[in-house]
Write a structure and sequence with these properties.
6-stranded mixed β-sheet; alpha+beta; OB fold (Dihydrolipoamide Acetyltransferase, E2P); 5 helices; 5-stranded mixed β-sheet
Amino acid sequence: MSEITDLQAFEFLQSIEQRSFESAALSPSEEDLSRLWTGVGFRISGNNYVVRLTEVAEIISIPRYTKVPGAKAWVKGLANIRGTLLPIMDLHGFLGRKAPHALRRQRLLVINHRDIHCGVIVDEVLGLNHYEDEEWVKDIPINDEVMAPYLKGGFYSGENLWTVFSLKALAETPSFRQVALV
C-alpha cells in the first residue's frame, strides 16, 4: 500500500478547491436569481392563476373544520392546525359562485398577511412556477370581472398566460375581512 505524503494531500485539496471555484463561476449568481419571479400555480373555476410564493404561508389539504355560527356562507369554519385556529374561506363562495362539490384535488392556500391569517380553498394546486422578470405583462385580458380586483398582470409561458392573483389584495379587501352576517 502506498503512503500519501502531506504534499500530495495538500495538492489534492488544492485541486478540489480549484474545481469548486470553477463550478461556482458557472452557477447562477444572486443577481441572476433576483430576476426570477417564483409563484404557486393554482386552478379555480377552470382557470389557471399564479400567486407570488411570498404571499403563501403554506399549502395544505383541507382539514376537518367546525362551522362558525353567524358567519357568512363562504366562511367554511375553523380548523385546528398545529394548535392554531385557522379560518377556512371558500374562494368560490366569496366570489359569488357556487362551489363545486368537494374535489379530491382541492387545497388550502394559507395567507399570513398583517393581521389576516386564514386558508383559502382553491380547486387545485399546480406547483411552483418560475418566470424571468422580462416575461411579466402588465396589461392582461380580463375574462372574469369578479376576479379583476385581485389580478396583477401575468406571465407568458410559451403561449399560455399565467395570470397573477394577489392573495394580499384579497386579504386587504374590506368585504373579505367582514365575515359576520350583519
